[in-house]
Amino acid sequence: MRMRNMDPLILALPKGRILNELAPILKACGIEPEADFTDECSRKLRFSTNDPGLDIIRVRSFDAATFVAYGGAHLGVAGSDVLEEFSYSELYAPVDLKIGHCRLSVAMPVQEAETENTTRHSHIRIATKYPNLTARHFANAGIQAECIKLNGAMEIAPALGLCRRIVDLVSTGSTLKANGLAETETILEVSSKLIVNRTALKTRAEAMEAWIERFRQATRA
Amino acid sequence: MNEKAGERALLPSGFEDLLPPHAQREYQAIGTLMSAFGRFGYERVKPPLAEFEESLMSTGPGAALSQETFRVMDPVSHRMMGLRSDITAQIARIAVSRLPGASRPLRLTYANDVIRTRASQQRTLRQFTQVGCEMIGTDDADSDVEIVIVALNGLASLALGSVSIDFAVPRLLEAVLESYGMDPAQRRDLCRRLQSRDEQVLETVEDLDLRAILQGLLHASGASDRALPKLEALDLPGAAASLAARLRDVVTGIEKAAQALGLGGVSLTIDPLESRGFEYHDGVAFTFFSKDVRGELGRGGRYRVPGGQGADTSAAGFTFYMDTLRQAMKDETLTQRIYVPKAEGWSCVKMLQDAGWVVIRGADERPSTQDFKAIYKNGKIQEI
Fold first, then answer.
1. Do B302 and B205 lie in a common domain?
2. Nearest Cα to B225, choosing from B260, B195, B266, B262?
3. Which of A2, A90, A203 has its CB closest to that of B289?
């Protein structure tokens, strides 16, 4: 029984773009993952680090939050877009890592954006990867959002008559422009956060707080 | 399983069949807890499964769970009934409506199922058993200590290892912000972000004194021996200061009492900003965890009971969730099952049972399964 408590803490990191931005922060925290971790071809999912008390898992960006929320991992990194979408009650987001900056925005075809009066709608169909966040945002404006969940290439959806709006992450806006869409509203400014599991913070307070403090210092530098 | 049978087996989400040995383990644990609570003078009550909506959900604890409560129309009175989603509200009602004359503090205990419209992320079940105690009619640190000690004693009677308690003061943050005159809308957003431990939000706080206090609160969490001094060092405004002082008295009181009662090995942490799930608590509140289980074992704290005729009274209580508690309990050794062929007759049954065996009778000479410790044959016990 006691063994469980000695098990290494698990840090869930998102694959892809963010991982490169994250590298200097991990280094500043003194975390050196095993060699396989940076090898894109490696099939491994769980990696050891130079610290026997910490292991890393590499998962999809949406899943990092899920692993931590359900206690599969103790710490993790997730964008504020993901955190707002799922609004997991079991997560704390103590440190803004100040990486992965972008924004979650509403976009619509350019001509419509010029002529349309948004307040007249009681219902809009929207393609997005973020149905909860989107529905909540439009509900606040008194509009019922019918969300079509897509996992990518939203920008093409309005032109094909699938929907009138999209809600998606925007960093430069060039993809929108290339598809004849105009960004009309920002829902959320996004950056990556260090997230921790609420129960783990309480039952393994000392180790968890030490890691939080290290990340805090690393982002301050 | 063919399609028909599969359909019959499917239960609505959040409902489950509890099978051997888990059901047995749960009932045994409830019995053990009840007698442990009983030794502190907590007397059992059994409220009904359904009540009229107004009575179930008007009082503080009930109102907080209104969204989680199933409602049905009573075909007899044509009024709406609520199926209980939490027992505390019912105990509070009983205290002021049925037992207003009973001497205070009133010590009551219960073990009943509740049913909720929604599962939570922590608890995927929609029906589960709550076991707990309520102490109604006092408002002092010693009562807070007693209720936690009774709970800890209960956990100890189940031989649960590595328990930790996290203390919170759900109204503390509100009290601080209120005394700095922050408007409710601003307060809500700030509270939400502070509660998710977002330190960056402090940059939006203009008052530097307030910012220092909030920063201090963010860091005054963790093991109580380190975090309590940090909390005490803060320059908290009036109401918040007395809440913090109560927390200190309760935590030190529990340390002392636990030592005197031999309830060692419990780690105490504090988290002054925690308010999740403490919608109706107005004093010190707490959550029980076990390092061996992911969810919460239980929670409790101090709250107000709206008075029947008189003024409001204060009460403190706790509730354990049997579904999580069950997971934290150690597996007992296999029960002593003995196979007795029917040919051996009935006379040996009582003798074996008295000797502690669980007797399973069967038609054949030998059992067809392996889960027996022994066989009774020709008047002799043969171990397998």
1. no
2. B266
3. A203
